[in-house]
Amino acid sequence: MNSLSLVRGVNATLGRLAPQVIARRMRRQFMTPRNFPPKDWEAPWLGSAERITLRFGLSALRWGSGPTVLLMHGWEGRPTQFARLIEALVEAGYGVVALDGPAHGRSPGQEANVVLFARALLEAAAELPPLQAVIGHSMGGASALLATQMGLRTRALVTISAPSRILGPLRSFANFMGLPARARAHFISLVERRAGIPAAHLDVQRYELAVPGLVVHAADDAVVPASEAKVIHEAWFDSQLLHLDAGGHQRLLADPRLIEAVLSMLSDVRAPACLG
Questions:
Q1: Structural domain boundaries of the chain?
Q2: How far, in Å, are 3, 111, 175, 262, 270 from residue 274 at the CA level?
């Protein structure tokens, strides 16, 4: 029996005997990110960035100058995972600010969730020049969508490998960890209580999205199903859908087609402001 099978077996047993106990344990695990060191190829981008600290302690990296593009990584991610996109944006004349999400990198906190990520975007936007675009990967994309419902203002929004609703990842985690029904229900309730918003409300089909957008997903994403992109696109009237045949959950961040689509959309939304 491998370690995962053992964990699932223990969770199944404890979940029937003491569902609230195992739910509390799983809630902490679900909301406590691990911080992984950057890959070797990310090192030059760390070295060339300016480290900034926002008013309430949120940490970020900044490159270039010009109209501001704000980036938010995904769960257990890092700003420099956007390296190829950052390079293209800076060369195109944009200033790029990439956040360390709450409890990630040098930003404060022990736990994180999509609501805290969304509030971090609002905090950053309040201290930065008007945003030309917000680009979020995975949970960062979900948080960017949520942040627009909380007052985030930006000329454009890009989601990459993002889920359309939070109940999906919650249920997938609970099932993966082997939680029986009662423990699963307690787990979701605890997450909702901690986040402060019912999970059912964190659903793009409930949102009013009035900003131009781009939805990007790869068919071979093993973390967030590619079908989520279609749900987001159909709920978002003013969005374009870029469906890549390959790129997994993270490799697509460096895909030239993604970069080209982002720059094209930014050019379109920037043009009116540049007219004499």
A1: 1-31+167-201, 49-165+207-271
A2: 58, 42, 51, 18, 7
